[in-house]
Design a protein that fits this description.
By secondary structure, the protein is mostly beta strands. The protein has no helices and eleven strands. The strands form two sheets. Strands 2, 4, 5, 6, 9, 10 and 11 form a seven-stranded mixed sheet that branches. A hairpin with a 6-residue loop joins strand 5 and strand 6.
């Protein structure tokens, strides 16, 4: 069965960095685009970053452009989110998500990870 297991969350000060990882199993990882989402307290879940099945082409939420970098290692069935210059409003639960196609365009999320908490606080 499909499994997505996130790790790397934690407490960080504003301006700090974290690297999230998501280990995937139960499907042919290199066939599918992947995404990172987040949900802040009291807010809806929102897309943060997407990456094509073979990597290379990515897409970001405007507020994280230049600060976050999504990448994947298809040999390790793992997707990453490098987060730099973290801000208070980056706080939330971060979810790894499998898309239904090789691209995030015209596709849907068909499986979610359990999430990992990121807290930016001084």
């Amino acid at each position: 069965q499909v499994q997505l297991v996130e790790s790397g969350g934690g407490l960080v000060q504003p301006g700090g960095s974290l690297r999230l990882s998501c280990a995937a199993s139960g499907f042919t990882f290199s066939d599918y685009a992947m995404s990172w989402y987040r949900q802040a307290p009291g807010k809806e879940r929102e897309a943060v970053a997407h990456i094509l099945n073979m990597g290379g082409i990515t897409n970001y939420k405007d507020s994280v452009k230049g600060r976050f970098t999504v990448s994947r290692d298809n040999a390790k069935n793992t997707i990453y989110l490098q987060m730099n210059s973290l801000r208070f409003d980056d706080t939330g639960v971060y979810y790894c998500a499998k898309r239904s196609r090789s691209s995030w365009i015209n596709s849907e999320v068909d499986f979610w990870g359990q999430g990992t908490q990121v807290t930016v606080s001084s």
